[in-house]
Amino acid sequence: MNADEDVENVMWQGRFITAKTRGKWEYVSRARGIKAGVILAVEDDHVLIVEQYRVPLGANCIELPAGLIGDHEEGEDTLTSAARELEEETGYRADRLEIVGEFFSSPGMVSESFSLVRAHGLTKVSDGGGVDGENIIVHRVALPDLPRFVQSKRDEGCAVDVKLLMLPGMLF
Question: Taking the CB of residue 17, how many other CB atoms lie within 10 A of it?
């Protein structure tokens, strides 16, 4: 790598994302060091899936519950954020949360990572649905029905988040 390829240039920065270049590469990152947490909530042979409209896709998307860490309160830790997001989005509270690891979903274009958090001991405490007009639809899907569920959502025109592919390997 030559000196020009080692210099990172900020082309544009918004509240949540930053567009950057480094050499010939163009990519985006989260602004202000914000990270994401994705929650794997599986219990009683069912998984919690959320569906919400995603502006960049122009369509509803089915995905695991998730949220930004530190976007509400500076210094908020991953597990506190995951607990808050799980309850806001799905209406379920976990007795225990554990960090499974850090992952990158599209490393050729986005430097963002997410922490995968496993939720244990789920209790339904509200309807969920998110905050501020998120209009999240909560699906509690039996694991054996997951392939049919995903296909039916595709048939309806929903996008499918790639993180759902992790489910078979993360369930045991």
Answer: 15
- Answering whether pTM is above 0.85, one says yes
Among 129, 109, 104, CA closest to 36: 104
Site of tokens 């990270």: 35
- The percent of the chain in helix, strand and coil, each rounded to the nearest 5, is 25, 45, 30
Helix (H) or strand (E) holding 150: helix 146-155
Neighbours of 150 (CB within 10 A): 18
Q: What is the pLDDT of residues 23-73, one digit of tens each?
A: 999 999 888 778 889 999 999 999 999 999 999 999 999 999 999 887 677
CA distance 59 to 159: 7
Answer whether 93's CB lies under 8 Å from 86's CB. Answer: yes
Distance CA 38, CA 117 (A): 6
Question: Nearest Cα to 79, choosing from 29, 48, 116, 45?
Answer: 116
Domains assigned to the chain: 41-102+113-164 (3.90.79.10)
Distance CA 146, CA 24 (A): 41
C-alpha 22/C-alpha 5 separation (Å) is 5
